[in-house]
């Protein structure tokens, strides 16, 4: 028997605005560790990589994500020892239908026609063996030409999810229709009727079948995505669709673009649903994080340095300091070094309105954490005032910042641990713990870590302008020289 070729596809381009302030535009929720020691993205990639069976041959992972997150994706795949992945980098968000079409075009490029197993990067699953069994069942049905979606039997009248109405034998149910997020009364009726399932957003389908479906249902999306794919450029593991063509693609979800029209046209495609009973949760808001978290006897979930007294059914997340909560019920408190969120748990979906307000005001708290991750390591802006800023900088072993200069600031570097190789003008020097150096304004310079342990320094900037856009790069390992 010839094995089924399976292409795992992780869609990692979401922004996660409803999990602010932990989720930011430059470090969204899929890359956060909210349970255990792996991020949501890492969990998704590992679940798909584990689908191999005697009749299923799993190819290297394909990730569709945002250009701005490319080094986060590479680093997190490296941490879980998933190599040889293909990264399709979207220059801007265009929702899930174009993303899945890009993955299908990549899959058929060499003349093959694998089954795509497509999952969002921001979900949790408790029972991984049950997940594997359900996905393998879906793969075998998709290999016969069906479009298969994973549906979750609801255990509560949830208004934050879309629903699927399906009927038939439990192993392979026929999809009758898709339903938008309902109001509470409708959700209660769906729960009582028993024919409705939560839409998990996971799809399993042959690449050629998806391309035929998107061409039939949304020829405009299909044509524009093909044009962007044909204009693509390659950069090591990165595949970049043509920016100008990509910008013309209509933004649409898989459900709106294909699933709902296919369900409304019986016979055009075989549309099936495999039930998923694996403790699935789409972490769309802090309420969902509370639901999947371990709780104390009073129903409280906490993370970090937290003290709770006379409080119930609450979620408290402390990232950088002690948080005390007294006499509260049904609340969410999330503390980070530069922002604090307090909300009624039942209204946690509305956090996205705070993020929208931050965006309109042009505030950095919508985009960046105080600790900012870079391909070479990270920096943490620990203090700032008029004409000065202090950063804590960590450089990974063997990594190097770009050769650069600044028009408006000078810098003082003090080595806290590790060894620093410093280029300043024509000089190259080595600094060890407790040694320091000065980088004059306008001088070309570079910081590198030649050692085998992380390098940590304290940087003190002084000058008339300290913004991150006062960087002129001359050489860069990570392709950031324009």
What does this 3D model show about the protein?
It is built from eleven helices and 31 strands. It is of the alpha/beta class. The chain has three domains: 4-282, Alpha-Beta Complex (Spore Coat Polysaccharide Biosynthesis Protein SpsA, Chain A); 286-361, no CATH class; 371-475, Jelly Rolls (Sandwich), CATH 2.60.120.10. It has a six-stranded antiparallel beta sheet with strand order 21-22-23-30-25-28, with no helix packed on it. The protein has a five-stranded mixed barrel with strand order 7-10-8-9-13, surrounded by four helices. The protein has a four-stranded mixed beta sheet with strand order 15-17-19-20, covered by helices on one side. The chain starts with a strand and ends in a 7-residue tail after the last strand. The model has no long low-confidence stretch (mean pLDDT 92).
Compute the CA-based radius of gyration.
Answer: 25 Å
* Low-confidence segments: none
Secondary structure: number of strands? 31
CATH superfamily of the largest domain: Spore Coat Polysaccharide Biosynthesis Protein SpsA, Chain A
| CATH-assigned fold name of the largest domain | Spore Coat Polysaccharide Biosynthesis Protein SpsA, Chain A
Domain unit count: 3
Helix amount, in percent?
A: 10-25%
Q: Tell me the span between the first and last alpha carbons.
A: 51 Å
User: Class by helix and strand content?
Assistant: alpha/beta
The number of helical elements comes to 11
Summarize the main sheet. Answer: 6 strands, antiparallel
| CATH level-two architecture of the largest domain | Alpha-Beta Complex
Mass-distribution shape? globular
Strand content: 25-35%
Quote the average pLDDT. Answer: 92
Strand order of the largest sheet: 21-22-23-30-25-28
Kindly provide the name of the CATH class of the largest domain: Alpha Beta
């Amino acid at each position: 028997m010839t094995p089924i070729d399976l292409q795992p596809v992780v869609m990692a381009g979401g922004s996660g605005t409803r999990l602010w302030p932990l989720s930011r535009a430059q470090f969204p929720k899929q890359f956060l560790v909210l349970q255990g020691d792996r991020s949501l993205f890492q969990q998704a990639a590992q679940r798909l990589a584990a689908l191999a069976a005697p009749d299923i041959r799993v190819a290297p992972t394909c990730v569709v994500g945002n250009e701005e997150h490319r080094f986060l994706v590479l680093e997190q795949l490296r941490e879980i020892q998933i190599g040889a992945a293909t990264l399709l980098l979207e220059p801007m968000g265009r929702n899930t239908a174009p993303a899945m079409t890009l993955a299908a075009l990549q899959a058929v490029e060499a003349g093959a026609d694998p089954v795509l197993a497509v999952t969002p990067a921001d979900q949790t699953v408790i029972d991984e063996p049950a997940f594997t069994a359900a996905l393998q069942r879906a793969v075998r049905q998709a290999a016969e030409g069906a479009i298969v979606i994973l549906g979750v039997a609801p255990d509560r009248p949830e208004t934050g999810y879309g629903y699927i109405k399906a009927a038939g034998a439990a192993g392979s149910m026929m999809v009758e229709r898709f339903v938008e997020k309902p109001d509470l009364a409708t959700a209660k009726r769906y729960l009582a009727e028993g024919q409705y399932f939560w839409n998990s957003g996971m799809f399993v389908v042959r690449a050629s079948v998806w391309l035929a479906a998107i061409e039939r249902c949304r020829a405009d999306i299909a044509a524009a995505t093909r044009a962007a794919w044909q204009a693509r450029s390659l950069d090591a593991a990165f595949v970049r669709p043509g920016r100008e063509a990509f910008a013309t693609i209509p933004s649409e979800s898989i459900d709106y673009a294909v699933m709902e029209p296919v369900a409304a046209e019986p016979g055009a495609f075989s549309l099936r649903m495999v039930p998923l009973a694996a403790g699935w949760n789409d972490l769309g808001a802090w309420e969902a994080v509370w639901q999947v978290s371990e709780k104390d006897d009073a129903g409280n979930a906490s993370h970090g340095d937290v003290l709770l007294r006379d409080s119930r059914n609450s979620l408290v997340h402390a990232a950088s300091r002690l948080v005390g909560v007294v006499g509260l019920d049904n609340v969410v408190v999330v503390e980070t070094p530069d922002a604090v969120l307090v909300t009624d748990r039942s209204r946690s979906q509305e956090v996205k309105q705070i993020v929208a307000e931050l965006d309109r005001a042009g505030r950095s708290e919508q985009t960046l954490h105080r600790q900012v991750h870079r391909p070479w390591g990270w920096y943490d802006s620990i203090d700032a005032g008029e004409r000065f800023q202090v950063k804590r900088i960590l450089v990974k072993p063997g990594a190097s910042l770009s050769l650069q200069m600044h028009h408006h600031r000078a810098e003082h570097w003090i080595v806290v641990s590790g060894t620093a190789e410093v280029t300043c003008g024509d000089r190259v020097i080595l600094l060890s713990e407790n040694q320091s150096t000065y980088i004059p304004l306008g001088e070309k310079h570079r910081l590198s870590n030649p050692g085998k342990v992380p390098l940590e320094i304290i940087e003190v900037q002084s000058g008339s302008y300290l913004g991150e856009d006062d960087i002129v790069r001359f050489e860069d390992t990570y392709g950031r020289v324009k």
